[in-house]
Amino acid sequence: MAPLRADVVSGAAVVGRTAADLVRRAAVRLPASDAAELRRELGALAVKMVEAQPAMAPLVSLARDVLEAVERAPAEGGLDEARRAGAHAAEAFREEVEARARRVAKRAARLLPDGCTVLTLSSSSTVRAALVEAADRGVRVVCLEGRPMSEGQGMAAALARAGIPVLLAVDAAAWCLAPGVDRVLLGADSVGDRGVVNKIGTAVLVAAARENIDKVAGYLAGHAAEVGHVVIFGGGRVGLPLARRLEAVADIRATVMERDAERARYVAERLP
């Protein structure tokens, strides 16, 4: 548990994989006399795991999947079957986290025009994968360092090793730099009914992104024939003004989806 608690640099995808490995081993090794006791021990471990990384939503999903798998394990299989079910659920969760991250990265990369400049904050393995995916199309990156731990420095170094031109900047420069970029690409530790949880300083970039609403609306208007309907996840200071702009100027029907994290996830996973 100590390495998981000490990881204050990695994003949700990496933390989710680490936690899945931890739970998989625990399902096999935790002392227990029967399946019921194993479930109690795994439940206690899940509480400690979530307390170690309270902002990371994948850990809650991992705990749910594993505990449900242990509970559903055939009773006639006893403790051994419960252990196998828990370990299998943890491994399946890890594989799904990795697959989902790859899908998101590929979709995000398709949103980046050739030769564009992208602004990002802190470190996200999914954002990094998306940028590397688009590296051969001349993408440039402005990477904010993400204090106090400055994990953005590692992010910038990784992008540079991939051959991507990178400008590493202090967080305080966000407002000045945002108007000069084409896209803002950020990770998310969790998505809930009240919005997105991410590195402190993200809100500044979102506020700065409001200045680019006309650019987004103009881009979508140019593709109105093939778009027709846009679903915007999250309203607030950006989503609602963008929806109004699309309907008023581009004649594109816009649906704003907020306070419904499960539905948003369902739709996002089924995007082409």
Helix and strand topology:
Blueprint: H1 2-6, H2 12-29, H3 35-52, H4 57-72, H5 78-110, E1 117-121, H6 125-133, E2 140-144, H7 151-161, E3 166-169, H8 174-177, E4 183-184, E5 190-192, E6 195-197, H9 202-209, H10 213-221, H11 224-227, E7 229-233, H12 236-250, E8 253-257, H13 261-269
Parallel strand pairs: 1-2, 1-4, 2-3, 7-8
Antiparallel strand pairs: 5-6
Helix pairs in contact: 2-3, 2-4, 2-5, 3-4, 3-5, 4-5, 5-6, 10-12
3D structure, described in words:
This protein has 272 residues and is of the alpha/beta class. The protein folds into three domains: 2-103, Four Helix Bundle (Hemerythrin (Met), subunit A), CATH 1.20.120; 111-189, Rossmann fold; 201-272, no CATH class. Helix content is 58%, strand content 12%. It has 13 helices and eight strands. The protein has helices at 2-6, 12-29, 35-52, 57-72, 78-110, 125-133, 151-161, 174-177, 202-209, 213-221, 224-227, 236-250, 261-269, and strands spanning 117-121, 140-144, 166-169, 183-184, 190-192, 195-197, 229-233, 253-257. The strands form three sheets. The chain has a four-stranded parallel beta sheet. Strand 5 and strand 6 form a beta hairpin. Helix 2 (12-29) runs antiparallel to helix 5 and helix 10 (213-221) runs parallel beside helix 12 (236-250). It is globular. It starts with a helix and ends with a helix. The model has no long low-confidence stretch (mean pLDDT 84).
CATH class membership of the largest domain: Mainly Alpha
Q: Which regions contain 5 or more consecutive residues with pLDDT less than 50?
A: none
**Principal-axes shape call:** globular
Class by alpha and beta content: alpha/beta
Give the domain tally.
Answer: 3
Distance between the termini: 38 Å
Please count the beta strands (DSSP E, at least 2 residues each). 8
Q: What would you give as the CATH superfamily of the largest domain?
A: translation initiation factor eif-2b, domain 1
H-E order: HHHHHEHEHEHEEEHHHEHEH
In terms of DSSP E residues, the strand content is: 5-15%
Name of the CATH architecture of the largest domain? Up-down Bundle
Taking Cα atoms only, what radius of gyration do you get, to the nearest Å? Answer: 21 Å
Helix proportion: 55-70%
Mean pLDDT: 84
As an assembly, this protein is single chain
CATH topology call of the largest domain: Four Helix Bundle (Hemerythrin (Met), subunit A)
